[in-house]
Design a protein that fits this description.
87% of the residues lie in helices and 0% in strands.
């Protein structure tokens, strides 16, 4: 199982993660507030799949360049707020 995970699933997840990242960033450039809501709604699913880490690359780039982040952190807050409202 370990060779299968390292040789097949790891590269596949990396490949899919890059597409998730590009889709979210391009959506943010086209429709900013809608992208924040979309990432906030799907962030719990991204965390369960382990794909949330690809969005941290955008976070680590935007802080030094802009000094703030108006995309990933608000989406995380929306996601946390949804979970509180459900329970």
């Amino acid at each position: 199982m370990l060779p299968l995970a390292l040789c097949v699933l790891g590269p596949l997840a990396s490949f899919l993660g890059s597409y998730v990242y590009e889709a979210m960033i391009s959506l943010h450039e086209v429709a900013g507030p809608l992208a924040v809501v979309l990432v906030g709604v799907t962030f719990s699913l991204l965390v369960m799949a382990g794909m949330h880490q690809v969005l941290f690359a955008f976070l680590f780039v935007s802080f030094p360049m802009l000094g703030y982040d108006g995309f990933i952190l608000p989406a995380m807050i929306i996601s946390s707020w949804q979970l509180v409202e459900l329970f």
